[in-house]
Input
Amino acid sequence: MVWRHLSGMDYAALAVLALLLLAIVPVYYWDRRLRRRHAAAWHDAYFRKGGLVRVLMSRWRAGPPRLTDQRPPPDRDA
Output
């Protein structure tokens, strides 16, 4: 591409593309920051506030179904 052969419309298109790129970059970093914040909150709740313990205890309490099990079957719709 030779810059001196570009028309005014080409420069306008390049300017619009540059502005779109400059508008997208902050949104991308904002989304990454939100994802990191959400992951940190999940990690804190799961590993530090007892979430993991509650999940493990619920698994231990139920156990695998037995042949003589009288519990109702698990809800398949949920």
User: Anything to note?
Assistant: The chain has a mean pLDDT of 80.
